[in-house]
Amino acid sequence: MPTKVKLILTLSVIVIGAGCTWLEAIYADPFVAKVIAGLVAFLVVALWIFPEAGVKDGEQQSD
User: 52 near 43, Cβ under 8 Å?
Assistant: First the structure.
């Protein structure tokens, strides 16, 4: 995945996650807000660390 796409996904996950975390912390359960914050952090790290799924070199894709 191109770096530009990863950056856009990362920023959107952070913005949406921050909004959800804030809403949960203010209007609902603070524990759920912590869980959401942890999931957002995991998603961002996973996006940058784990490789994309796809065909490995030397293997043919079957139709």
Answer: no
Asked, for residue 31, whether it belongs to a domain, the answer is yes
HSE-up of residue 1 (Cα within 13 Å, Cβ side): 14
Contact by Cβ (8 Å): 25, 33: yes
Q: What is the pTM of this model?
A: 0.75
Tell me the pLDDT tens digit for each residue of 2-46: 889 889 999 999 999 999 999 999 998 899 999 999 999 999 999
Count of structural domains, the chain: 1
Alpha-carbon distance of 9 to 57, in angstroms, equals: 27
